[in-house]
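Internal ticket - ligand job 245, GLP:
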Amino acid sequence: MSVRILVYDDYAKMSAAAAEHIASRVSAQPSIVLGLATGSTPVGMYAELVELHRRAGLDFSRVTTFNLDEYCGLDADDPRSYERFMWEHLFAHVNLDRTRTHVPYGAARDPEAECMRYEEMIRAAGGIDLQVLGIGMNGHIGFNEPGSAPNSRTRVVRLAELTVEVNRAKTEAEELPAFALSMGMGTIMDAGEVMLLANGEAKADIIRQAIQGPVTPDVPASILQQHPDVTVFLDRPAAKLLKLH
Ligand code: GLP
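stdout (structure tokens):
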């Protein structure tokens, strides 16, 4: 197993370390292709990346990004959309070339065709060098819900009821779509390197299952144990149930 586990005292330190990790990769490879995640977990990491850009001149001008997922039916400017999230937390604040930032287009008239187009764009960019992930309460990564095939590609997925409810509560939106466009497990596993972030005690059990439990599509994140280069960034509460030596 090649999962490296890093535990930090608190969320701020975890976020700073994750941002530093990305910054070192970007500095070493200015035209890197990053896979990006949404959710509350990476918010602190994005804030740190913005600081690194402002204070230390971290240069994103040649970086390409692909986000993991988007809700079906939401236009880019919908306050609930992940496109909007990325603009608020990162895109508007760093010198990314707008033509090189990608989020699946939720309002596409033909979502299946959009998924194929997205896969093709990732391939054309040379694949994802470094993929950032959060984890859902049921072990989902991106929107790959339990049962997702390990070789799945970007596709339209139906969200688990738990996912819609948890995410709705977080965004305070009245309603969220029950379908999404998401990179597949295979798309994620093709990334050269993976970072998985989790914080808070509520994630401790699913982190234990994902990192030290059996590898099973029932816990999609557990498939990452078969990836050759994964680093897990945790705060202490999220690491609580792991066996660490
Ligand atoms: C959403 C996203 C996932 C994310 C998950 C966890 O469902 N599609 O990519 O990892 O939420 O969110 P949070 O970080 O808010 O716990």
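Auto-summary: The longest helix spans residues 11-28. Residues 37-41, 68-69, 134-136, 142-143, 163, 167, 170 surround GLP (CB under 6 Å).
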